[in-house]
Amino acid sequence: MVDTQQNTLSRDAAAAANRRYLTVWRWHFYAGIFVAPFLMLLAATGLAMLLLANISGREGERLEITPQAAVQPLSVQAESARASLHSETASVVQYIAPRADNMVAVFRVNDGGKAVMAAVDPYTAQVVKTYPRNQDWYHLMDEIHSDMLIGTFGDYLLETAASLTILLIVSGLYLWWAKQGDLSAAKKLRNMLFPVWGSGRNAWRCVHSMLGTWLSLVLLTFCLSGIAWAGIWGGKMVQAWSQFPAGKWGVAPNPESDAATHGKLLNDGKTKEVPWVLELTPMPQSGTTLGENGIAPGEPITLETVDRYAREIGFRGRYQLNLPQGETGVWTLSQDSMSYDANSPTIDRTVHIDQYSGKLLADIRYDDYNWFGKFMAVSIALHMGTLGWWSVAANVLFCLAVIAMCASGFVMWWKRRPAHAVGLTPPAQKTKLPPFWAMAAPLLLIATVFPTAVAAILLVWVLDTLVLARVPALAKWFK
Question: What is the chain's mean pLDDT, rounded?
């Protein structure tokens, strides 16, 4: 009698565990059907950007030239770049120092609403190539990666997909852990990382689950760093309270919406050129009494003297020099891994110089960032593969693995579908499953941190309650 009761309890417990598993599996399935195409798109465009940045350069700066004994004055190089537009109204607004002795210098030349990049041989001051700014393959991939070429709505879709990916990671790890049965925690973990391969759909499940386990931490980091730059969670929430305190150089720390921020003045188009933590920070202005020890008093403030000063204060190799724009504009020197200037985020540095007095108005380094700014600097370097060739190789493998993980999920779904089935055929189709609040509560709690994820979950709930429940044809397709 006791054995019978124990067997009954054991069967009931197993049945309850199976229902919980099927509930989470169904959640994972629906989220995955939505998220997977976007993840594959992000992985493919990210891979393309990674390769293009290391072959031709984001700004076309990897063109090679023959090194010579002497370099032409920077003003001569700049004038050569300006003259290449054959326009009296053209003006040089940015200089990007050569990445190496055998590579070109790059100048950005504006003429009205047109921006052109001119690659110049620093030894001869001859223009090697000119090309429209932000209109090459790298920037096309970047725009698709940012908003799929459909603007704000595309940005929100990708932010939603990245936010739901975080829930997919949590639910996927639960499913793979639960699938290991009653093994010890150590054996479960070993089997999750190194599964025993089967055949057919089981082999595809092993591919999907193993890749998901191995990629989970990196994918989580990439999602967080990506949505921190997205329009809602990033732009409206975390970036606003993580900005660098401009009060350090006498600018009000809470700028109005029309303030001249780093992002507005230095970013161009959808490509980000300013470290994340500085985007919303107001720029200092020239013509004030602020500043300290900069270019020596009495020395003319020209492209050459500013470049020389940059080298004197520690800028090495490739860095970017933005010329003052307008009466209150400043000279800006910057070097960061996000812009492919160097292979370490800890070298991040942005310097502002008064265009009239030559005084140093601000010198912002990685050590000055707050904790989230440092997290973003490091995670973006990981995200973009700018930490050296090992990170390029690792990111190539990561992107391919994400595509394989998503593709294997679709293959598993297709193999599980009954012959001649109609619709999505979710797991445990037509089976009424109880809510699993022990798992639903933490997932919803995580979702509340990301507004677009909450909006997506609420939208699905409304559609399920008001539409699918009342239209049998749709319910048959989706449920």
Answer: 88
Dist. CA 216–CA 192, nearest whole Å: 12
95 and 159 in a single domain? The answer is no
In this prediction the pTM is 0.90
Per-residue pLDDT, 256: 45
Other CB atoms within 10 A of residue 17 CB: 12
Q: Could you tell me if 43 and 165 lie in one domain? A: yes
Tokens representing residue 414 in the block = 């297709």
- 9 lies in some domain: no
Q: Record the tokens describing residue 447, joined without a space.
A: 């979702």
Residue 4 lies in a domain: no
Query: Are 300 and 214 members of one domain?
Result: no
Same domain, 403 and 345: no
- Which two three-digit tokens encode residue 30? 């629906």
Pairing status of strand 114-120 against strand 360-365: unpaired
Residues in the chain: 479
Per-residue burial over 427-450, b if 16 or more Cβ lie within 10 Å, else e, is beeeeebeebeebeeebeeebeeb
Per-residue confidence band for 255, with pLDDT thresholds at 50, 70 and 90: very low
In a domain, 444, yes or no: yes
Q: What is the pLDDT of residue 253?
A: 46
Domain assignment present for residue 212? The answer is yes
User: For 351-387, how does the pLDDT look when each residue is reduced to its tens digit (9 = 90+)?
Assistant: 999 999 999 999 999 999 999 999 999 999 999 999 9
Same domain as 161, residue 34: yes
CA distance 218 to 229: 17
Calpha distance 362→19 (Å, rounded): 60
Cα angle 98-99-103, degrees, rounded to a multiple of 5: 65
Assess whether 155 and 31 both reside in one domain: yes
Q: Where in the sequence is the domain holding 47, given as residue range(s)?
A: 22-53+150-226+391-478
CB atoms within 10 A of CB 109: 23
